[in-house]
Amino acid sequence: MNQYSFYSNEITSSELFDGLVSGGLFAEKMPSIFCSKKFLEHSKTLILPLTIKPTDYIRYSSMRNINIPRPLAIPEPFAYINQCHILSENWPKLQTHFRDKTKNENFKVSRIHLRKLKNKDYLFEMNYKNSFKDGYPEQDIVIRSKYIAIADISNCFPSIYSHSITWSLVGKNYSKKNRDESHWFNQLDFYTRNLKYGETNGVLIGPHSSNLISEIILTSVDLEMQKLGYQYVRNIDDYTCYVKSYEEAEKFFLNLSEQLKKYELVLNYKKSEIIPLPKASVQNWVTKLNHFNFTDIYQVKGKDTINTKVLKGFLDYSIELMLSEGSNVAILNYAIKIIAKWNLEKNSKTYLIKQIHHLVLLYPYLIQIIEDFVFEPHSVNKKTIQEIAEDIYDYGVSNNIFEACSYGIYWALKYDFKLENISIKEDSIKSLDCVFLIISYLYDRKHQRKIYLKEYVDLAKELKKDDFDRFWIYVYEVLPWDVLPINYKLMKKSELSFIKSDYQ
Predict the structure, then answer these.
(1) Which of 360, 338, 343, 349 is nearest to 285 (CA)?
(2) Distance (Å, rounded) from C-alpha 458 to C-alpha 381?
(3) 30, 406 in Cβ contact below 8 A?
(4) pLDDT of residue 172 exceeding 80
């Protein structure tokens, strides 16, 4: 059975296009206020690919678990559907590529990839666990191993050389001899470059098409590493290789580096690590958190409930684990998700919310999860959410972490409260952060008189002249249809919006 059956059987060409456009234009790690379903419908009325110049893109920063921002991108939408169109039109050829590169795999090397997801509009998710369809190869390949070699690619997506896409698909020599843009592989290169102002270096982090582009290249690397006899699993650009000796682990790093260089990619030696076995099948802290002894469990309306003493013990234990692991905030993230499954008594809930309020100001990475795993499961009241939102907003302004500001305003919109003593318009305009700007505009449009919005409109007019692509969603949503570029004019005139109706 072909190990990449999810590419060859599960996803059709039309499903690929639909999933990439309706669910892959906006990165997951931003306030859940944007939607491109209507844009997908509109794109099907167009004759693709459109003739457009290379475009710039919207910048957005999202905090990582090590409290360092990750740069994300929202591509210019018409350049994006051009790329999605070329990918879907040539999907049968790409399926053949994946089959050829993976047909000799004994298990699916790539763990995080495009796949059909139940009841989802998108095909890719950063944090989904291994699908049961992919199996659990670690159980077999660890048996005769004595070490694990951990490696990753240095700045993987920003380092992908667009021409290396063609090298992977048809070979470097062939692609160099056949540069005509009429060739399908050169079109994929061309429309990928067009998302990034025509530049050959780097693909955007955020749009789901980039994950497919990276798989095109990295499955070619996988094939060569498989020929050398290495057994590993890969999570996008993170490698976990099981070896019999320390020397073999060192050789794995050298061989992987050699294969990556063929595509202008570089191994991140600073993050390379050789770990002796035995080792837990998952990260040690995951095992420890999952095996925490929740004592004194009692029933409230048929639900398993824990008291404040047990909750405090678990949170303290989680914080200690986090600090012992180099302040890896992913540990707190995981702990909060565990707590979300428990029912809490009134005092326990109060304690949890105050602790989360404190922790999220220390570790803004947690901002991304507290809506789904604190506010909603624990039915946090509006007044408390408002207090947290205002503090997070102030923290964001003070530290130029505009993601925090955006989330504070997003919660005000979602839970319908006003933010007090906060100069939203002035702060967002000063920031020139596109996501912060559009969410601020939506908030002020809801609460302020039309004349108050004039500065937003004036800024949109200036950005339209000088920096449209970098602020396209802000300019598009703020300005009337008759002053927009032609492609946007047609959409706006038909009242198409990229903002979910709940926030209009």
Answers:
(1) 338
(2) 37
(3) yes
(4) yes
3-class DSSP assignment, residue 195: helix
Q: Give the other-Cβ count within 10 Å of 450's Cβ.
A: 8
Q: Which of 80, 105, 34 is nearest to 438 (CA)?
A: 34
Do 50 and 82 touch, CB atoms closer than 8 A? yes
SS3 (DSSP) at 275: strand
Q: Are 181 and 187 in contact (CB under 8 A)?
A: yes
Q: What is the distance of C-alpha 350 from the center of its chain?
A: 32
Closest listed residue to residue 390, CA positions, set 404, 376, 377, 402: 404
Locus of tokens 């060569």? 224
Each domain of the chain, given as residue ranges in start order, spans 4-276, 284-476
Could you tell me the two tokens for 163?
A: 């021409």
Three-point CA angle 445, 448, 450, nearest 5°: 70
How many CA atoms does the CB half-sphere of 487 hold within 13 Å? 20
Average pLDDT over residues 422-449: 97
Q: What is the DSSP annotation of 478-492?
A: HS-GGGS-HHHHHHH
One-letter identity of residue 65:
N
Residue identified by tokens 């503090």 is: 391
pLDDT of residue 5: 45
* Whole-structure pTM value: 0.93
Average pLDDT, the chain: 92
Query: Stretch 273-286: mean pLDDT, rounded?
Result: 78
Question: How crowded is residue 2: how many other Cβ atoms within 10 Å of its Cβ?
Answer: 15
Query: Would you say residue 368 has pLDDT above 70?
Result: yes
Mean pLDDT for the stretch of residues 156-182: 96
The secondary structure of 370-393, three-state, reads HHHHHHCCCCCCHHHHHHHHHHHH
Of residues 501 and 127, which shows the higher confidence score?
501
At residue 19, φ and ψ (nearest 5 deg) are -65, -40
Checking if the pLDDT of 196 tops 90, the result is yes
Rounded distance between C-alpha atoms, residue 329 and residue 318, angstroms:
10
Cα 115 to chain centroid, rounded: 15
Q: Do 125 and 117 meet the contact criterion of CB atoms below 8 Å apart? A: yes
* DSSP H helical ranges for 183-324: 184-193, 209-227, 246-261, 284-290, 308-324
What are 36's two structure tokens? 């491109």
